[in-house]
Amino acid sequence: MLTPPFKRSGTGGLAVLANPRLEPCCEHHEAAASGSSPAHARSRLHQLDPHLHCSLIGTCLGTGELRKLMARHVDVRGQSDLEVHHLAVGLAVQGGDVLKALHKALDQRHAGAVRTFSAATDEAALDAAWKQAWAAGDIPGAYWALLTHKTVTPELRQEAFGEVHMLSHLMGSAHRHELQRFVALEKENAELHERLEREQLRRQEAIQERDDMAARMQQQSIDAERRIAQAVANSQQAAAPRMDGDWIALQTQRREQAERQAEETRQQCERLQEQLDRLQSQGRALVEELAAAEEELHRLSTAAPTSAGSDHGWLRDRRVLYVGGRPSSTPAIRDYVERRGGEFLHHDGGLESRKGLLAALLPRAHVVVFPVDCVDHDSVSNLKRLSERHQVPFVALRSASLASFAATLQRELTSANAEAQQPFKFCLRHG
Hints:
Layout: E1 6-8, E2 14-16, H1 27-34, H2 51-60, H3 63-71, H4 81-94, H5 97-109, H6 111-117, H7 123-136, H8 139-147, H9 154-237, H10 245-301, E3 319-323, H11 330-339, E4 343-347, H12 357-361, E5 367-371, H13 377-390, E6 394-397, H14 402-420
Helix pairs in contact: 2-4, 3-4, 4-5, 6-8, 7-8, 8-9, 9-10, 10-14
């Protein structure tokens, strides 16, 4: 801001800058020029310095509420939120109906905060109420109630204005970082949705093919039974049944052919069943990964903080060794583990880190994780051998994505904790 809302007076104190666009017409302008408000009432919006209007309107009124209010006085169709904000600030400086409507909307929206701050009778109590509201995160209502309070001083107004101004910079920086992560997770979520849809389509096609084949086999069985019944009926109708060697050989050949067809059909059904089980298992894994990604997206969209003592701290005091993986997804996995109270150890499988370091890192870990699609066979063999030697469990991931890591690790650790919490049963007879 090039022009601050306050300036030093000739006597060394702080004085509010005069509004050049408003001509003094009543005692309110005299009170605004002296930096104080009447002792019997709160300050009005037109009594405040015009440089405070931008901060007050932008902080204490939402964009949707401001657009609805301004639409009653001017045409705001096709204008952006920034243009509506600039229009409101400009009309507030000019005074008139817009200024009165803004003051009324601010009073109605933050009536609770105004009542709370009205209990403060001096500067110390007012400063304590402002600090308490700041610590609780109730900034908009407290900011409006403080600036319009009848006992507020220019120094306290300037201090509150500076804190809100710096808060906007901090929120913008944090929002950019979270927005980048949100976009990455949203992209991964969309990819998982597409993959899940493709797998469901393949599963439906496999089920349909299996059902069609079962229907054909059932029809063939019915036809075979009908032919057999017809043959039996024909043989019974014959006065002198033919029981020579050629007839017996023909029936034996037919029986053997039917048995071969039945065996081939059984084997084909077993293969289809194995394929269906594999698709169902892969579908369940994709559903778990999608649920983990959606949970992370929900936490980021609601800006809910994660601490080691909360429900998200299920990795507290655990060291996770991650072997292999992609350089692009490893930082996100590291951040996921650390935000849940865990310690992240990483070994790339021998690309840049020496393979001998794996034997030194593994005894320190509580669990070892590696993606099957992004690690070499030597590292996996060495990893399994070291895990069996040091009694450290290892978990194989379906892929190197963050969603696969979160879903698999949470499932494995949750089942392990449930087994560990089962009561110990001791038999007095058998031990």
